[in-house]
Write a structure and sequence with these properties.
18 strands, single chain, alpha/beta, seven-stranded mixed sheet, Metallo-beta-lactamase, Chain A, 7 helices, globular, binds zinc ion
């Protein structure tokens, strides 16, 4: 026990030194605009499922818990950051650190509908837990970071798309089209993030014309709001819905590695989505900024009408957008 505490203290000191060093080393001149990186395109053809896409005009986002949502639109069923542990179970966050779940998922893993694609922001226990690692069908297509993709391949998953920032995955089924683009994300202050898994956000463009999509969704991933985030609305204006990973997660109770309530509002002001759904806000004991922090900041900024609050299990419905 004493050794564990000593180890954690050393780790905390290492994290803080690393962050301070990175700040001191930070270049003063702005980096080349992230908007100019071209990105590579990958493609995924899904087998026709026999039924015409009945949901061409309207779709749903069901919040399951943590950063897990089920998105249904235009014949696609997409699962994000699958986490199906229950209250009292623990996840591993690396370096011997664990966190206890405080909520239950709205459905059990066994109750999932057939999934066309998993969008995984990063390979961390609260986003792809040990039970999902064991039970998820190895042929399930998963789009994630390059680093996360390598971990998944080692676990035996066979349809992995590992993306760098601005890479795209074009998904087709019959007449339906979906483009997933990896967007910048950084899991903590510059120096600390290098010690944590690489993170990507994602923009989902539904419809045949990705430049004028039928619906455009942004999923932040576990990130702070930093300079590169500004490139997202430059490349992807008119985001219809943003799913923001909040929680103000703190490692060892000190180092903030996900957005808190205030950061969530800043993110809304940078990305300017028409609607925002906060997720990843109360599920683990490392989440230190409750949803009320965000709600208070939203009220202070006069943004109430732009936010939709979903409890675990609740569903947000949306309609195709004419541009
Ligand atoms: Zn997380």
């Amino acid at each position: 026990m004493r050794f564990a505490r000593l180890f954690q203290t050393c780790l905390l000191l290492a994290l803080l030194c690393h962050a301070a060093a990175a700040r001191a080393d930070a270049p003063r001149a702005p980096a080349a605009p992230a908007t100019q990186a071209p990105g590579e395109t990958f493609s995924l053809q899904l087998a026709a499922n026999g039924s015409p896409a009945q949901d061409a005009e309207s779709g749903t986002v069901q919040f399951i818990g943590t950063a897990t949502v089920i998105i249904r639109f235009q014949g696609f069923t997409i699962l994000t950051d699958p986490n199906f542990l229950h209250k009292g179970e623990h996840v591993h966050l690396g370096y011997g650190l664990t966190s206890e779940r405080r909520t239950n998922p709205a459905i059990r893993f066994e109750e999932l509908p057939p999934i066309d694609l998993v969008v995984l922001s990063h390979f961390h226990g609260d986003h792809f837990d040990q039970k999902v690692q064991e039970r998820l069908n190895r042929a399930t297509p998963i789009v994630t970071t390059k680093e996360g993709g390598e971990r998944l391949k080692r676990l035996g998953f066979t349809r992995i798309f590992g993306l760098s920032t601005w890479d795209r995955l074009d998904v087709a089924r019959g007449e339906s089209r979906l483009r997933v683009t990896a967007t910048p994300g950084r899991h903590g202050p510059a120096g600390v993030a290098v010690l944590l898994p690489k993170v990507m956000g994602a923009v989902l463009d539904f419809g045949a014309n990705a430049a004028a999509p039928d619906y455009r969704m942004y999923i932040s991933g576990d990130t702070l709001v930093y300079d590169d985030i500004r490139a997202i609305p430059q490349r992807f204006p008119d985001i219809d819905l943003a799913l923001l990973h909040l929680g103000g997660t703190r490692i060892l109770g000190v180092v903030k590695v996900t957005m808190d309530g205030k950061d969530g509002v800043r993110m809304m002001q940078v990305v300017r989505p028409k609607k925002t759904v906060p997720i990843h806000y109360n599920d683990y004991d490392v989440f230190k900024s409750p949803l009320e922090d965000f709600a208070r900041e939203v009220r202070a900024a006069g943004l109430e009408k732009d936010v939709v609050y979903l409890a675990h299990g609740e569903t947000y419905s949306f309609s195709r957008v004419q541009r």
